[in-house]
Design brief:
Largest sheet: 6 strands, mixed
Radius of gyration: 21 Å
Helix content: 40-55%
Strand content: 15-25%
Strand order of the largest sheet: 6-7-8-3-9-10
Number of helices: 10
Distance between the termini: 58 Å
Shape: globular
Structural class: alpha/beta
Number of strands: 10
Length: 265
């Protein structure tokens, strides 16, 4: 579990995050959503230590990341997996070598054990057959799956994903969502996903944090969104006409339930 308490972040005199408190749960897909420029990426960078909060706490199972020494932070980072927006694979390394990279850096396994572990992770994302290919030889969706395999190689307790569906078609996005959701359950990770993808929000959003202009504006489950009275949230979520129609239908059913059939006595 990751908990943030009264988190603030300013750059010089510009406050980007204001008094955000939230809990991200184990074994659940925790989504951070909001418009471009709302502060989502800055929040995630504060969570993983790429930025230092101006004020507030970031607790990893009760351990305050902000107050840790450099050595303690390095040790904690070994418990984290990261999936970047661009997949961020090494072009000069094969798919297998890309997945082995964190194992080469941080594990005490011998070469054969590292290969075996990397192949297990590729098998988990259905890509063992592509292990000798290079990133430039596979599709964008396959690159994202390699990035997921690399992120789980060290059995992370915490998994961070920055726009994992960026640039992917809807069908491939569903594959990535399903993978992230099932891996979260399988490893009981605390998974945090920054996303603009409304399919992800409605499909795998077990715990959703909505950021508006640097403030926490709403937190809940995807099932709660349809009934939310938060106008900023609903304007953001239901920006498309199709989703607006869906919401109208749900509200009509909620307020005008079908009357029971009349039976003759």
């Amino acid at each position: 579990m990751i908990e943030i308490q009264h988190l603030y972040k300013s750059f010089e005199d510009k406050e980007v995050l204001h008094d955000i408190s939230a809990v991200f749960e184990n074994g659940k897909t925790n989504l951070i959503i909001g418009q471009s420029g709302s502060g989502k990426t800055v929040l995630m960078k504060n969570l993983v230590g790429l930025l230092l909060p101006t004020k507030g706490k970031v607790l990893y199972d009760g351990r305050d990341f902000v107050a840790m020494s450099k050595r303690e932070k390095i040790l904690l980072r070994r418990e984290m997996g990261m999936i970047f927006q661009s997949a961020a694979l090494f072009d000069s390394l094969s798919v297998l070598e890309n997945v082995m990279f964190p194992l080469d850096m941080f594990s005490s396994m011998n070469y054969r054990e590292r290969v075996k572990r990397a192949q297990e992770c590729l098998d988990r994302v259905n890509l063992v057959e592509a292990q000798q290919k290079f990133p430039g030889e596979i599709s964008g969706g396959m690159q994202k799956r390699v990035a997921i395999a690399r992120a789980i190689a060290l059995n992370p307790q915490y998994l961070f994903c920055d726009e994992p569906n960026s640039g992917l078609d809807p069908k491939t996005s569903l594959v990535i969502d399903d993978l992230l959701s099932s891996i979260t359950k399988e490893y009981n990770t605390t998974t945090i996903i920054n996303t603009h993808d409304m399919n992800s929000v409605m499909g795998i959003g077990e715990n959703i944090l909505f950021i508006y202009e640097g403030h926490k504006d709403w937190q809940g489950k995807s099932g709660d969104i349809m009934e939310s009275t938060n106008k900023r949230l609903t304007d953001f979520i239901f920006a498309s006409d199709l989703l607006k129609e869906m919401r109208t239908m749900v509200n009509e059913q909620h307020h005008h339930p079908t009357s029971p059939a009349h039976t003759e006595e």
